[in-house]
Specification:
This protein is α+β, with helices and mostly antiparallel strands. It has 5 domains: 1-198, Immunoglobulin-like; 315-446, Neutral Protease Domain 2 (Neutral Protease, domain 2); 453-539, Aminopeptidase N, middle-beta domain (Immunoglobulin-like, Sandwich); 549-688, Peptidase M1, alanyl aminopeptidase, C-terminal domain (Zincin-like fold), CATH 1.25.50; 739-870, Zincin-like fold (Alpha Horseshoe), CATH 1.25.50. The protein is built from 27 helices and 31 strands. The strands form 8 sheets. The protein has an 8-stranded mixed beta sheet, with no helix packed on it. A 5-stranded mixed beta sheet has the order 17-18-19-21-20, covered by helices on one side. Strands 10-11-16-13 form a 4-stranded antiparallel beta sheet, with no helix packed on it. β25 (453-461) and β26 form a beta hairpin. α4 (343-363) crosses α5 (384-417) and α19 runs parallel beside α21. The radius of gyration is 28 Å and the shape is globular. The relative contact order is 0.06. Bound molecules: (3S)-3,7-diaminoheptanoic acid and zinc ion. Aminopeptidase N is involved in the degradation of intracellular peptides generated by protein breakdown during normal growth as well as in response to nutrient starvation. Keywords: Aminopeptidase, Hydrolase, Metal-binding, Metalloprotease, Protease, Zinc. Residues 232-442 form the Peptidase M1 membrane alanine aminopeptidase domain.
Length: 870
């Protein structure tokens, strides 16, 4: 059982007790792990208060207070709390010691929160509120303590016993047991606690910090996987160096450990000195990982490493402040990725995710500000809004005050708050002091939700040579946001004008939109300019600006800012898709093909051309059309793809072959993405359909230099999209080849779930029965169920409602197995508002069914309540 009433930001009050030190002794056993927790507690204020500790799914064995055993009459206990009444320590002066002995059952813990088993290993996940599943504690981020952790387990099965901090002791015990003791000198909230035990392979390395300290780096992986940890190690060292160079931040312990496990609810966890990672974000070699796997591993390793300062050294006062650490750390990992790779392409990928997923969240029933005000299940708030929009808010700040002031602000933030648990306001105040900029209006980004809509109009006066842009902003008005205020929004733009020689020249500007409506005047503008708005996507907003096709093409060809060039193309493509959804007879213009031909023969970097060729996704466009028919949208996107494929076939083929040839000469990620986007188009045409099969065969012909997972998977994805004849054989070849490699089999399940075929539901049923399928492994569950709901819109939105029914049935099972995973997977069902009425009815039917489940978890309840009230 867990608490079933929501909590409110406005109810925050500091803890009545502090804990200075925790001494934990954990004796590991599959069913009966014993936890002895010795707490050094002090009262935080003069008032007489009960000591109320959180605890869930733990069995209390005994409590002693100041070495006196307490009898059951002396305390209160229920499913969620252990209360020591104030009378017990009314006379105690200063620090007092509480020793609590509990037992937990890791093997039964399929929710993967607290202490659980991942395969043969023991590991923990405590953020947000998992520590209370290990022992009774003040499980809140503003209670910070130093920890000593002694881990005891069987030596043969668990040769490695790990916890936070530095190793201070180890030794053998009777009956084949051994122990290791760790001490973490940095006071931390219990959500950063970690413990791991297992038999791993270990990759070691070291890093010398700029002040000359040597840090041991250790990556623990399942046996036999050592070579797959190299890329993670390189990424870690790059991250450590980058944080020193860019932010002057050094690592602080003598050891940094990462453990990769197969059973994990999310990507990774930044526990102090002992990160636990989903193996998906650690393991890679060129046979089994794609280019995007490599990219993501580097980004997640960096993200968790950067948390050591933004999250661990300075942490959150309460969970409503989550974006304090997550938005900021995502911004830092985005900066890092942009520095390591193409900054233009990295930015485009950030924006695609934001527009397709975060905008949908902000428009759906679970919309919340980046600093939420009301929470039932905290795990529901590790959202795209808190993370990605949170990062956009930090980016806007960076834009408004400039890079130099931003760095000064970061320095001040650490100077003021190192070792403390603070709020988003504290962060903005540090930025404001460092830059001398008034950021009071800017703070509204933390309390208002919804994607602001910005409408733009322009007037050019030939006589006065003035150009005026009028921008108006509107955030969504709803029951819970009756009167949204004007936000402080940086708008970067370019004015494109022919110069004296008739060539297009561009001038950049930054406007600060602070009013509901504001007019900006540009003087001495020789002719009516073409305006490219939102350079670098300077704010997370939706823009309405009527620009004709000609202007968009001009931006595509002449804007300085690569984001603007890409975005103008996307706007054009979106407008065509929209037209196709309402008008069957709409004839797509030849100009589009001409511009694609130009693109394909341009000298731009390959990765960037690939981005320009990529159509906006189903989700992104769905969010832009009111009450869209999903079937029509799928058809429209397909029609546009085929039109491009036919029109630009020759150049697509030529580019494809050129990239294929280049690929043989070297390993270029951008060239591979360009090749595979060409393949996506070409495989839609009967004349070039066989290319995908050939590519698959080539990538699997046993010659090491050709083996490449990116190419194999791209070929399979194309074949799945058109349900090619060769697909069945290829999928079974792939299955045979990779059946022993868990992460690759996840990819196999995902491709299977995305096949566009009438028989998909029978196929899904078979896949659920596959010997390697289990709902208990989150990656596996997501690779089948999530991939179907996200990547197979045609059948997920099948007009009979069968797709929705399938998803709901799996969520019902996951409700008891793993509520966090269930709650993540429900997203596409609750975002029904963008679809036409007939689909809304079918989706809601499933939501009502789920709402009636016996023992509905808080995770699902919170989302279903919101969705059904909508
Ligand atoms: N802080 C963790 C996420 C914890 C999620 C809890 N449900 C990973 C990260 O953002 O770095
Ligand atoms: Zn994070």
């Amino acid at each position: 059982m867990t608490d079933s009433s929501p909590r409110f930001l406005s109810d925050y009050s500091p803890s009545d007790f502090n804990i200075s030190h925790v001494n934990l002794t954990v004796t590991l056993d599959d069913k009966n792990t014993q936890v002895v927790s010795e707490l050094l507690v002090t009262k935080a204020n003069e008032s007489l208060c009960d000591l109320v500790l959180n605890g869930e799914h733990v069995k209390l064995i005994s409590i002693t207070l100041e070495n006196q055993a307490l009898s059951a009459q002396q305390y209160e206990i229920n499913d969620t709390h252990l209360t020591l009444p104030s009378s017990l320590f009314s006379k105690t002066q200063g620090e007092f010691k509480v020793v609590i002995v509990t037992e937990v059952n890791p093997e039964e813990n399929t929710a993967l929160e607290g202490l659980f088993k991942s395969g043969e290993a023991f590991c923990t996940q405590c953020e947000a509120e998992g520590f209370r599943r290990i022992t009774y504690y003040l499980d809140r981020p503003d209670v910070m303590a130093t920890f000593t952790t002694k881990v005891i387990a069987n030596k043969v099965n668990y040769p490695y016993l790990l916890a936070n901090g530095n190793k201070i002791d180890s030794g053998d015990l009777a009956e084949g047991m051994h122990f290791v003791t760790w001490y973490d000198p940095f006071p931390k909230p219990c959500y950063l606690f970690a413990l791991v035990a297992g038999n791993f392979d270990l990759l070691t390395d070291s890093f010398t910090t700029s002040s000359g300290r040597e840090v041991n780096l250790e990556i623990f992986v399942d046996q036999g996987n050592l070579h797959k940890a190299e890329h993670a190690m390189t990424s870690l060292k790059k991250s450590m160096a980058w944080d020193e160079q860019v932010y002057g931040l050094e690592y602080d312990l003598d050891i940094y450990m990462i453990v990769a496990v197969d059973f994990f609810n999310m990507g990774a966890m930044e526990n102090k000195g002992l990160n636990v990672f989903n193996s998906k974000y650690v393991l890679a070699d060129s046979d089994c990982a794609t280019d995007s796997d490599y990219f993501n591993i580097e980004a997640v390793i960096a993200h968790e490493y950067f948390h050591n300062w933004t999250g661990n050294r300075v942490t959150c006062r309460d969970w409503f402040q989550l974006s304090l650490k997550e938005g900021l750390t995502v911004f830092r990992d985005q900066q890092f990725s942009a520095d390591m790779h193409s900054s233009a392409v990295t930015r485009i990928q950030n924006v695609r995710l934001l527009r397709a997923q975060q905008f949908a969240e902000d428009a759906g029933p679970m919309a919340h500000p980046i600093r939420p005000t009301k929470v039932l299940e905290m795990n529901n708030f590790y959202t795209l809004t808190v993370y990605e929009k949170g990062a956009e808010v930090i980016r806007m700040l960076h834009t408004l005050i400039g890079a130099e002031n931003f760095r000064k602000g970061m320095d001040l933030y650490f100077k003021r708050y190192d070792g403390m648990a603070v709020t988003c306001d504290d962060f903005i105040d540090a930025m404001s002091s460092a830059s001398a900029k008034d950021l009071s209006q800017f703070k509204l980004w933390y309390s208002q939700f919804g994607t602001p809509q910005i409408n733009v109009s322009e007037v050019y006066d030939t006589l006065t040579k003035t150009y005026q842009l009028t921008l108006s902003q509107q955030s969504p008005v709803t029951k819970s946001q009756l009167d949204p205020k004007a936000l402080h929004i940086p708008i970067k733009l370019e004015l494109l004008l022919p110069d004296s020689e008739g060539k297009m020249a561009s001038k950049s500007h930054m406007l600060e939109l602070t009013e509901q409506e504001q007019t900006f005047t540009f003087n001495d503008v020789t002719t009516k300019p073409i305006t490219a708005l939102l350079a670098d996507f300077s704010a997370p907003v939706k823009l309405t600006f009527e620009q004709d096709e000609q202007s968009l093409y001009t931006i595509i060809n002449h804007a300085q800012n690569s984001f603007c060039r890409w975005d103008a193309g996307q706007q054009l493509l979106i407008s065509y898709i929209k037209r196709l959804t309402i008008d069957n007879d709409f004839v797509l213009p030849q100009a589009l093909i001409n511009s694609i031909d130009t693109l394909l023969t341009s000298k731009n970097e390959h990765a960037f051309i690939a981005e320009q060729l990529q159509l906006p996704s189903f989700d992104e466009v769905a969010g832009l059309i009111d009450k869209v028919s999903p079937q029509r949208l799928v058809e429209a996107i397909k029609k546009l793809s085929i039109f491009i494929a036919k029109g630009a076939q020759e150049n697509l083929l030529r580019t494809y072959q050129y990239c294929q040839e280049q690929g043989r000469l070297g390993n270029n990620v951008g060239t591979r993405s360009l090749k595979n986007i060409c393949l996506q188009y070409l495989s839609l045409l009967t004349t070039s359909q066989s290319l995908a099969q050939k590519q698959y065969d080539l990538a699997n012909n046993g010659l090491v230099q050709n083996e490449n997972m990116t190419d194999s998977l791209a070929a399979l994805t194309c074949a799945a999209k058109i349900n090619a004849e060769s697909l069945t054989n290829q999928l079974s070849h792939f299955e045979n080849k990779w059946q022993d490699t868990t992460l690759v089999m996840d990819k196999w399940f995902a491709i299977n779930a995305s096949v566009e075929t009438e028989t998909i539901f029978e196929h899904l049923d078979q896949l659920m029965e596959h010997p390697l399928f289990t709902l208990k492994n989150p990656n596996r569950a997501r690779s089948l169920i999530g991939a179907f709901a996200m990547n197979n819109p045609k059948y997920f939105h099948c007009p009979t409602g069968r797709g929705y029914e399938f998803l709901a049935a799996q969520i019902a099972k996951l409700n008891t197995i793993n509520p966090q995973v269930a709650s993540r997977l429900i997203t596409p069902l609750i975002q029904f508002k963008s679809f036409e009425a007939s689909h809304q009815i079918l989706m809601k039917e499933q939501l009502v069914k789920l709402h009636n489940l016996p023992e509905l978890s808080n995770d699902l309840k919170e989302k279903l309540d919101a969705a059904l009230a909508d």
